[in-house]
Amino acid sequence: MIQQLCNFSRICFTNLGADMKDAPILWIVIPCYNEEDVLPVAGDMFLKKIISLEDNKLISEESKILFVNDGSSDTTWDLIKDLSGKDRHFKGISLSRNFGHQRALLAGLMEAMNRSDITISIDCDGQDDVDAMDEMIRRFAEGYDIVYGVRKKRDTDSFFKRFTAESFYRFMNGMGTEVVFNHADYRLISKRALEAFSDFKEVNLFLRGLIPLVGFKSATVFYDRKERMAGVSHYPLKKMCGLAFDGITSLSVKPIRYVTIFGFLIAFISFIGVMWAVIQALRGETVSGWASMTSIICFVSGCQMFSLGLIGEYVGKIYMESKKRPRYIISERIE
Ligand code: UDP
Ligand code: MG
Fold first, then answer.
1. With contact defined as beta carbons under 8 Å apart, do 38 and 126 qualify?
2. Ligand 1 within 6 A of 328 CB?
3. Taking Cα atoms as reference points, which of 26, 191, 60, 49 lies closest to residue 132?
4. 100 CB within 6 A, ligand 1
């Protein structure tokens, strides 16, 4: 009897899952900055994907593709408007200036939050495999609130890009900012996780480090990272170092602790040096140690400058946070 009851409820539940009315509303959030070469192709690609997800009854027919124009100086916004005129799935918001990838993504996620059950954030350039979305949505149906898209390997990246990107993750983790290895910003977030995340009010955004702090059940889905469809990367080494530094200093105080430990070490070595100098002086063997003296002064002052700079970085972050400026400003919206 109990067995039959279980079977019956299982059948009902399975049918419910397959019913369109119960399928979640998905919003795909795509930040775009000067992507006029990519958008026409990418638009088609995302549209095909969302239609196939709808056909497979994985998502509701009310699902949308939301482009966020991050203050592009080319025709990106016009292209987004054209796309939205052609198909009901496309939506768009335009930021008042270039706020950067992380904030553009945040703007899109907040826009989608109250009108979707799940969001998937993805880059515009076709590097992330859209076919991984099926698996992500299935994971959501299994009860996971956050599903991270993780690159299997980096064959398509140049050796330099691969090396710097992998060092980035290792360095971040070493510095106390927990990030999912080889996961960029391709991820599914459920409505309740996004609502919880909307309470994180910081101005210094590093989503890859912040989202894991939200908690909830999470899963990973692996995919092959492709080459950019067209155009060039907006993350050259300089920007990537900036992102790593921002990520570390806005999420972790480990560097300050390392500086303290380093300071202790230097103080200890200096103490030995002083002892040595005193003993030498008492034995009357003082030498004209100009070179060693200069080296020590240079080294210690270098350490001090570095430590001051690092502490200044944190002070600067507090300064920026204390202003409570808006993290993005939307200037136009396609409804
Ligand atoms: N992007 C953005 N604002 C910026 C820089 C980049 O919205 O200031 C977008 C860009 O259009 C792309 C995504 O962020 O959709 C990732 O950028 P990109 O592909 O240049 O970085 P990479 O994949 O090389 O790390
Ligand atoms: Mg890219």
1. yes
2. no
3. 49
4. yes
- Using one digit for the tens of pLDDT, what is the confidence trace for 172-184? 777 777 788 888 8
Angle (CA) 122-124-125 rounded to 5° is 115
Euclidean distance between CA atoms 233 and 278, whole angstroms: 58
Query: What's the CA-to-centroid distance between 192 and ligand 2, angstroms?
Result: 28
Find the mean pLDDT for residues 83-92.
94
Question: What confidence tens digit (pLDDT) does each residue in 53-85 have?
Answer: 999 999 999 999 999 999 999 999 999 999 999
Residue nearest to atom 24 of ligand 1 (CA): 233
**Lowest-confidence range among 2-6, 40-44, 139-143, 303-307?**
2-6
Q: Which two tokens stand for residue 315?
A: 């002070």
The ligand that comes nearest to the alpha carbon of residue 39 is 1
Point out the ligand 1 atom lying closest to the alpha carbon of residue 123: 15
Closest CA to 258 of 222, 208, 303, 292: 303
Identity (one letter) of the amino acid at 265?
L
Residues around the ion ligand 2 (C-beta < 5 A): 123, 125, 127
